[in-house]
Structure formats: C-alpha cells, structure tokens
Amino acid sequence: MMFDGKIVLITGGAGGIGRATAHAFAREGATVVLAGRDVTALTEAVKEIGPGRADHVVADVTDPSSAAQMVETVAGRHGGLHVAVNNAGVLDAVGPVADIDTGAWDAVLAVNLTGVFLSMKYEIAHMRTHGGGTIVNVASNIGAHNRRPGMAAYAASKAGVSILTRTAALDHIADGIRINAVSPGASDTPMSLLPGESETDRAVRMRTAIPAGRVADTSEVASTVLWLASDTSTHVVGHDLVIDGGAAA
Known about the structure:
alpha/beta
C-alpha cells in the first residue's frame, strides 16, 4: 500500500485520466479528494471508489479564491495534503490560429495553464509548511513534444504546463516538494475521439497513427502518475514523462 494514510487531491478527478488515477491511488491506500465543477459527476466518482476512501470538493481552478479554498477544504477535512495531481483540462479553440476566437483561446489557457498555476500555488503554500509533498501535473504530448495543425491553443497551454512544472520543481525542491509532469498522448477518453467517430473507428485509425498501434488505457497513465508521486521515484525532479506509444518519439 504505497500511499497508506496519504491524502491525495486530484483536479479534474471525475472523468477520464483523473478518475482512473483516483481509483489507482485508493487501491494503494490513499484517501482521494476529487475536485471539479460538476458535482453530479464528482458524486458518482466518489461512490465508485467507495465510502471512506474518497471525497469531493467543488472547485473552479481558474478562480484564485476557489483554488485556495479547494486546498484549505482538503487539508481541513482530512488533516493534510500529501500528493496533488493537477489534471483539469479542456480541448477547445480548435482551428487555424487566424480563426481562433479570442474568448475560446482565453478559456483554454485559463483552465489548462492558469488552473495548474493556481492549484500549485496553494498546494505548495500548504505543503512547504507541513513537511513537503509531491505534485504531478498532467500536460500532453501535444505541446512541448509534438504539434498538430489546428491545435495551437491546446498545444500552447500544455507546453506551458511542461515549462511551469520544471521551473516550479527547481523553485521548490528545497522546500521538500517534488514536482513532475506526465504528458499523455491519445488515451481511452472522449477527448481522443474525432467528431462523430466511434471507439471502433478510433481503434482502426490508431493502428497506423501511433507506433504502438493503439491508444493508452487510462490505467497506464494512472500507474505512471503513481510512480512519480511515490517514494520509488525520489530522485526524479522536474521531469516531463511522455506516455504516448511512441507518437512523439
């Protein structure tokens, strides 16, 4: 039980990679707190994990006061915060740069980049006065590692997460806080489906689109997050680990 007695906060914890990661931490003994804006989805995810192993907090990571309250609530209810996984993200503002709506651009950066900054700001503030901790940010193989036409907003935001992660890691390793990132490629979530595409259609497309021939299972991403958050990776600092079946190799 790698995380027995640990309190783990996961933003965007109600779906996809966040939900799989919550289950994985709970199986390893952690109490997981799922954060997000959709209280119905959060409640369902908590029920799946089981009583006593999971909790939720409604929060908007783009709002400084909400992000601060999120961390304060977790620590107040559960007596601390040991691990944070900043996973909340959106894919929007798709299209050529000249055609991107400025409001949609702002919204993508607000969630994907500023949301990670604000979450880390308050997570770190708590951790450095309570014995340290670990943080794993969810970036993407689209951004610092790879690019796609029509995805400038998403790529810019996720590249920013990669750089923010590595800079924050240097800023705060002396505080006893170890910060890293994962950069998943196409995973078994709705975000990897093209408009109108079925999972079967996606599987056919991925046979040639990715060297490994398939999307990642969310459990594969979750297990990597757990490794980076665990005591088995204590000398890994400021790393951005790509999990994409060779797509960005």
